[in-house]
Amino acid sequence: MAVHILVADDHPLFRDAIKSAINIPMGDDLAPPVISEAEDFGSAMAALNDNPDTDLVLLDLSMPGSSGLSALVSVRATYPAVPVVVISGTDDVSTVRRSIDLGASGFISKSARTDVIRQGVADVLAGEIALPEGMNLGSEHDPEIEDLIRRIRTLTPQQARVLGMLGEGLLNKQIAYELGVSEATIKAHVSAVLQKLNVDSRTQAVILLSKIGSDMLRDDADED
Q1: What pLDDT score does 222 carry?
Q2: What is the DSSP letter of 130?
Q3: Whole-angstrom Cα distance, residue 151 to residue 5?
């Protein structure tokens, strides 16, 4: 069976470049991968819902419908068995390290050569972590960010999904509809999230979440 890869990025030219780079047999497979595309976060999640057996997601963090690393938090919470490789035009050590700390299986820079992109995808499909060439992640230097990532990692999968959807700007009613549960259940999840993040409001939670990838989002916006 061919490998199924989802390329989630809002730039058609970059999606085409990624498809061109990885449209060859991977590992022991004799056929090229089956490649799906998504141009915004909502369609990416819909594609995963339609095909939860997807083998790999290549995820741009600054697509419409997502807010930085909240997209990664949401995907990892909802589909924990699906490896996610972050793709970004910002490839500084902090952004890469925070992506890996929050569950990404790799990080590919948008400026990477075709052979590097192809090798990174192959490495992750083989169960390895793919990082930019020669990068040493070191450790987090911002105590606030380090504490926030530690707190996020204590969330249950459903709580992490709710946090990600808060980061996307959804209201409790919308989250309840998306998850197929009652609004009261979502209110309970939000309360638990606020307690674990040690904040008093959902606005504060979203602000904290945005701090993880704020530099990346600013740089990507400058590119657009």
Answers
A1: 38
A2: B
A3: 30
DSSP string covering 168-181: TT--HHHHHHHHTS
As a whole number of angstroms, the distance between CA 35 and CA 50 comes to: 14
Tokens for 166, please give them: 């808060």
**Strand pairing partners for 109?**
88
pLDDT at 73 over 50: yes
pLDDT of residue 155: 86
CB-count burial class (<10 Å; 0-12, 13-18, 19+) for 49: exposed
Report the predicted TM-score, pTM, of the whole model to 2 decimal places.
Answer: 0.79
- Is residue 190 a contact partner of residue 202, using CB atoms and an 8 Å limit? yes
Measured CA to CA, the distance from residue 13 to residue 206 in angstroms comes to: 31
Closest CA to 109 of 136, 132, 134: 132
**Which amino acid would we find at residue 197?**
L
